[in-house]
Each structure stands twice: as C-alpha cells, then as structure tokens.
C-alpha cells in the first residue's frame, strides 16, 4: 500500500514538473512554439527601470525553435533610436530589423537569447534632432519568464 501511494505521488510530481517546464521554470527554455511575455529595460547594472523602457511596447514575442529562443520587441519613436544592439557571445551585435512602420514611427527588432533567466546586455543610441539630444546608453533587458504565455495557433 505504501509503495503504491509513493508511486502515485512520484507520478503526480513528474506530471506537474513536465507541465510547468515549458512555461518558465528557472533555467529552462520553453518548448518549441510561439509565446508572449513581459520584460523590463533596466539601467545598466541595476534593477531600476531605464527611460528606454518607455520607448518599448509590451509584451514581447518569443519564438523557440530547436530549443533556441528568439525575442522580438517593438520600439516606439523609432526614428530617434538610431542603434539597438544586444550582447551576443561577448560582443554587441545590431538587432535584426523584422519590420518597421514609418507612419507609426515604430520598428520591430529581433535577437537570439541564450538564457531567458539572465539579464541581457544591450546598447542603444538615441538622437532627437529637434532637441539637439544625442545619448548613448548601456541597458539590460530583464525577461519575466513567469509571464510566458503560449500564442494560440
């Protein structure tokens, strides 16, 4: 009887773990598919929200293919953001421009993410000619893996 109960509890724990694994258990990449999730743009090396966060649209999109995560997010005031890079293998690389809408002044950028639980270093340059403003910023993207939600097919 005890053996049977132990087997049932072990099976139940396995099922719960298997169901939660694709949706943000620490260190895990979700199963292949399309998802949305929240994120925050942080001031470099802090947990404080960067002004750059207000230039992004939430949520972001996540596509996982072959266990590889690829994030796309929308930048607002796209004409002001002249550079958006993420750190890949120790070097800053321009994010892919997935699409842009000049009428709405938005741009969708995409980049691979090796670890969704870690902050991703990013670099951006903002130029606002009418104000004579030119800023260069190191920021970090913090992904909210608990908010990962599958997109209906």
TrEMBL record:
Keyword terms, alphabetized: Cell wall, Peptidoglycan-anchor, Secreted, Signal
Stored SMART domains: NEAT (SM00725)
Signal sequence interval, chain numbering: 1-28
Keyword Magnesium attributed: no
Membrane-related topology note: Peptidoglycan-anchor
Gene3D superfamilies registered for this protein in UniProt: 2.60.40.1850
Subcellular compartments: Secreted, Cell wall
Superkingdom assignment: Bacteria
InterPro entries reported for this sequence: IsdA, NEAT_dom, NEAT_dom_sf
Domain (NEAT): residue spans on this chain: 30-151
Chief localisation class: secreted
Entry keyword Signal: yes
PANTHER family: IRON-REGULATED SURFACE DETERMINANT PROTEIN C (PTHR37824:SF1)
Protein name according to UniProt: NEAT domain-containing protein
The species this protein was found in: Paenibacillus enshidis
Lineage of origin: Bacteria, Bacillati, Bacillota, Bacilli, Bacillales
